[in-house]
Amino acid sequence: xxxxxxxxSPSLPAIFASCPPSHMFEPGAYSLLNxxxxxxxxxxxxxxxxxxxxxxxxxxxxxxxxxRKKMDPNFETPNKAPPTLLNSLTWxxxxxxxxxxxxxxxxxxxxxxxxxxxxxxxxxSVVVLRCLNNVLGGMSFVILARLTGSQSxxxxxxxxxxxxxxxxxxxxxSNQSTYK
Length: 180
Prior knowledge:
Mean pLDDT: 84
Structural class: mainly alpha
Number of helices: 5
Radius of gyration: 23 Å
Largest sheet: none
Helix content: 55-70%
Number of strands: 0
Low-confidence stretches: none
Shape: elongated
């Protein structure tokens, strides 16, 4: 869950002191510049968290793969491991821009929905919105990772095991034509 005002630090850095502390659509007499300041501040916080998580996650993943290769010399990874620093920077970019934008937007939409919907409809819409947010976040990360080169798409290699499983290696199309 996203942090709430009670769990976040009570004071923002001096440059952002007059900005809304939680999200840019927070009620109050804040100027447009102050609300944009919240967007920038939260983006920097999200980017720092994304960089740290990307760094730790990539190092752990690469370490586990390396350990597996030492235990089983015949083990081959299906994908090439991403460069650690590039993957961490991709996570920072994704969290700082995409996640921050979606977080701010969701808070604004939920603020409006809370005013106009009965409690059950509001809670149901929050569940739907947050599920859609997760799907959108995953899709946007994959697109960004491919753009930065952190994740690449390789052509699928034919697998001999699949051919053995399909009716003793016969052509799949000839099998399908007999079922028509």
